[in-house]
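The instructor's notes for this session suggest beginning with a concrete chain rather than abstract definitions. Hand out the sequence below and ask the class to guess, before any prediction is shown, which regions might be ordered.
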Amino acid sequence: MIDRTDKPTAPILQVRDLKRFFSVSDGLLSGTSGELRAVDGVTFDIKAGETLGLVGESGCGKSTLGRVIARLMPATSGEVMFEDRDILNLDHRTLLALRADIQSVFQDPFASLNPRMTAFALIQEPLIIHKVGTRETRRAKVHDLLRTVGLRPEFADRYPHEFSGGQRQRIGIARALALEPKLLILDEPVSALDVSIQAQIINLLAELQDRLNLTYLFISHDLGVIQHVADRVAVMYMGQIVELADNEEFYANPRHPYSMALLSALPLPDPHIARDRILLHGDLPDLANLPDGCRFQSRCAHVSARCRKSPEPPLAAVSPGHLVRCWNLADIHPGADTD
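After discussion, reveal the predicted structure:
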């Protein structure tokens, strides 16, 4: 984790009760039968200059959340404020200008790069779309960006298949930086890479953040990566955030049963220290037909009658800056402050 205590503390991004539902059909001719709640009432802030790590299992809605924030897909309802602008209600012209401030880096660098375009063309494309500079200044900018991400300018005329996976991800990062954004949404940016290359990309992202004062929403399923990069951690389960805390507090004192289970699978640095595994049993709920009460109830060892009834538990503070969505914290953590 990077120490950024000297950075500004004002939120650059504020997400309030954000929802993204998808229509579900029960047959070819029967039409819509329900809604799949991929993102269901998500609320959080990201401060300028910090990294919020968003972690959860595949299918929990974290990538959908990132795409809605970036306006790559529409929201069903809710509010996303970026520097006091409601970005969900912008017209096309204003939205185009906003895209210079919010950029994305995706999981698979080979799939996200057009194989028919050179590295130069890929990085230059956003500059052309936003009418930035002349042909000469754009060429200089692209070469500078290649150097910034650790690639040689003479690589500019190569195509994606001529690069390694790590180099392709560096091109994706250079393209995202071309318009000098303030917020990067990093959607599993290292999960498709070898471990040694992951470390290089993570170090590059940390260096760029400090040098350019970037803000990151870092989406990952890997708690080890999140521990290294994030200032705060948000755990997502079935469309909702179930725990949100500062990095050190979260890894030292997880409170939600789901978070505890995830962390129990994280290897410890000392192989001689054993950690008790918490195995989750039961089935995942159907996002199109959610049960009453807590949506973690079918997999939770601490489930009670209250958990099976409506309403769902709220995301409530158990200590300053530490929010948890659970009815049974007093039983799971006897003696802990759950006010």
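Then share the key points. The longest strand covers residues 32-47. The chain has a mean pLDDT of 90.
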